[in-house]
């Protein structure tokens, strides 16, 4: 897609187009947040509606009026509940606090369309609110039909228009970003977890601002200020930035964005890696040109489903019948590979002799298929157990192994057991796919890497069984993906440190 030229943002350039959101219940907490936000950007939104009382609002604005934050640009918001905010007062009370914000030094205010419509004279300029006005529309239910473009009224009623809508599909985000490309003095905010990739890419499409909370998230799908700026580098992304990502459902738990973006930062690559919550594969695939996706990882539940959308596939991935890595070729066609295979072998070969070993793979999905093929080709005798008996039998036939029923696990012995199901994955850490009585083996490996120590691994340790976390497999398959996409060796140490630090911090 050709580069679109946009008028300069009224909030300035570079990092100042990231708006740090200060939202707390007390003036003291917000006063602590503001300097933190100003270390990252000169633009800070003060969510006055989040403060728990008028006395807290008064305290904050009195404090702010005494400060001398050089170059800071404050945007005051006192959104009423009728417009999706936290403020319980009426329109006159909202206007009062916005006028007080001006006295405290706020240059901007955000006024919702609900307030604009209720004003007796239909003009916010009749009130002594901050001199620069953003008119905002929020739709928390859907992304409605959008106009071709948006421009501020010529009479100067407002300076910027913001549209924030709930993205129910990934294509909803694309529609909002297209509007940003065609509009001036406009802020685009796709809301919700599905809308996150669009929210992050909004700046490169011409949005005047992108929001990020300093502390607690104030809207669905937000990512923290430091993460938005330093990990995703939202203010530096352009149409030349290569976009990669991971598709799955769920996807919030994935540490792939942390791993790959850490690598991009370390190597100074003009690339970004995004998490795409994908309910519908066709919906995501149709947005690849708009987002400029060059490649993506595939996780549950799409590893097998993606095959029918590929133009071509690596022979090993075709044999496995599951893909976890996709390259988008220059003509837009998709090429699939499987690096989970490498991950399983890398994690186990250092800990046990695979040839002639008896290994149980619990599960029959995409990850289980990669594990079963890796083990079979390494010379292991592979056993498959799954709640879907037909899937277990099919996978066992494919690897010349044996499908066994769940009841047999209390009497059979194995050299190793691999959990290839999502049971026990964050945020459901208290679940385990297998009981203590079913762990009749010398080693247990859980392909889940978050949490680092799953309940299954804890049970195995109680029984004196050696354990292998899914972290080693996760890192190995990720490093292999990097080489495929970047055609160079990844900065493994930096990527490993970032992931391990996150897992250890909980």
> What is the CATH superfamily classification of the largest domain?
Aldolase class I
- Looking at the structure, what is the overall shape? elongated
Assembly form of the protein: single chain
Distance between the terminal alpha carbons, to the nearest Å? 40 Å
Q: In the CATH hierarchy, what is the class of the largest domain?
A: Alpha Beta
Please state the average pLDDT score: 94
Named CATH topology of the largest domain: TIM Barrel
Structural class: alpha/beta
The radius of gyration is 26 Å
* Amount of helix: 25-40%
**Total DSSP helices:** 17
Strand order of the largest sheet: 7-6-5-4-3-2-1-8
Per DSSP E runs of 2 or more residues, the count of β-strands stands at 20
What does this structure look like?
This protein folds into 3 domains: 14-239, Aldolase class I (TIM Barrel), CATH 3.20.20.70; 248-338 and 476-500, Rossmann fold (3-Layer(aba) Sandwich), CATH 3.40.50.10860; 341-469, Rossmann fold (3-Layer(aba) Sandwich). Helices cover 33% and strands 20% of the residues. It has 17 helices and 20 strands. It has helices at residues 27-38, 54-66, 91-103, 113-118, 170-182, 196-201, 225-231, 256-267, 281-285, 288-291, 315-320, 340-349, 366-377, 389-398, 455-462, 471-486, 492-505, and strands spanning 18-22, 43-47, 73-77, 108-112, 132-139, 160-166, 186-191, 210-213, 242-248, 271-277, 293-298, 312-313, 325-328, 334-337, 358-362, 381-385, 402-403, 414-419, 441-446, 466-468. Strand 15 (358-362), helix 13 and strand 16 form a beta-alpha-beta unit. Helix 1 (27-38) packs across helix 2, helix 8 (256-267) runs antiparallel to helix 17 (492-505) and helix 12 packs across helix 16. The longest helix has 16 residues, at 471-486. The mean pLDDT is 94.
């Amino acid at each position: 897609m050709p580069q679109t030229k946009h008028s300069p943002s009224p909030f300035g350039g570079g990092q100042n187009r990231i708006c740090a959101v200060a939202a707390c219940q007390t003036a003291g907490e917000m006063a602590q947040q503001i300097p933190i936000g100003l270390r990252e950007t000169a633009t800070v939104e003060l969510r006055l509606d989040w403060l728990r009382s008028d006395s807290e609002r008064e305290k904050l604005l009195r404090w702010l009026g005494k400060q001398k934050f050089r170059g800071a640009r404050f945007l005051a918001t006192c959104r009423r509940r009728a417009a999706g905010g936290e403020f319980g007062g009426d329109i006159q009370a909202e206007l009062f606090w916005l006028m007080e914000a001006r006295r405290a030094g706020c240059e901007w205010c955000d006024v919702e369309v609900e307030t604009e419509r209720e004003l007796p004279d239909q003009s916010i300029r009749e009130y002594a609110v901050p001199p620069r006005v953003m008119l905002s529309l929020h739709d928390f239910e859907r992304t409605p039909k959008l106009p071709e473009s948006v421009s501020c009224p010529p009479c100067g009623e407002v300076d910027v228009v913001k549209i924030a809508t709930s993205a129910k599909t990934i294509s909803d985000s694309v529609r909002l970003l297209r509007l940003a490309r065609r509009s001036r003095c406009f802020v685009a905010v796709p809301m919700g977890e599905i809308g996150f990739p669009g929210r992050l890419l909004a700046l490169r499409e011409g949005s005047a601002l992108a929001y990020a909370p300093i502390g607690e998230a104030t809207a669905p799908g937000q990512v923290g200020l430091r993460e938005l700026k330093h990990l995703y580098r939202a203010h530096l992304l352009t149409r030349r930035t290569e976009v990669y990502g991971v598709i799955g459902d769920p996807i919030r738990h994935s540490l792939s964005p942390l791993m790959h973006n850490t690598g991009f930062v370390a190597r100074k690559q003009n690339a970004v890696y995004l998490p795409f919550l994908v309910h519908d594969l066709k919906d995501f695939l149709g947005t690849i040109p708009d987002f400029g996706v060059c490649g993506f990882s595939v996780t549950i539940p799409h590893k097998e489903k993606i095959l029918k959308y590929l133009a071509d596939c690596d022979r090993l991935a075709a044999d496995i019948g599951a893909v976890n890595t996709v390259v988008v070729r220059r003509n837009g066609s998709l090429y699939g590979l499987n690096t989970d295979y490498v991950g399983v072998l890398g994690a186990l070969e250092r800990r046990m002799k695979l040839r002639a070993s008896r290994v149980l793979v619990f599960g029959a999905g995409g990850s289980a298929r990669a594990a079963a093929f890796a083990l079979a080709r390494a010379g292991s005798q592979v056993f498959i157990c799954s709640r879907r008996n037909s899937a277990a039998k099919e996978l066992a036939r494919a690897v010349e192994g044996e499908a066994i029923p769940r009841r047999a696990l209390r009497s059979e012995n194995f050299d190793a057991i691999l959990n290839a199901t999502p049971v026990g994955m964050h945020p459901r850490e208290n679940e385990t796919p297998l009981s203590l009585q079913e762990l009749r083996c010398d080693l247990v490996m859980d392909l889940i890497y978050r949490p680092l120590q799953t309940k299954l691994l804890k049970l195995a340790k109680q029984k004196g069984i050696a354990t292998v976390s899914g972290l080693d497999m996760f890192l190995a398959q990720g490093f292999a993906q990097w080489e495929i996409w970047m055609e160079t060796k990844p900065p493994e140490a930096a990527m490993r440190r970032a992931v391990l630090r996150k897992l250890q911090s909980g």
